[in-house]
Amino acid sequence: MKQIVINPSVCHGKPTIKGTRIMVANVLGLLAGGYTISQIKEYYPELSLDAIQESIQYAINVLQDEEILEA
Prior knowledge:
Arc Repressor Mutant, subunit A, mainly alpha, two-stranded antiparallel ribbon, globular
């Protein structure tokens, strides 16, 4: 991933878009809220299509590695 970075001194170490303080969770939240990629790019003009797509891929990667424990 070229666009997603984790830096403990930026946004409490949450994954962000490189060169910004925009958290991946914010991008995913907008998508979940029904925003289109075009609308997200209007809201955050500094985001590229690649950065938005990598945010989605980051979430997929995290979920693929998630381990489900039975209660």
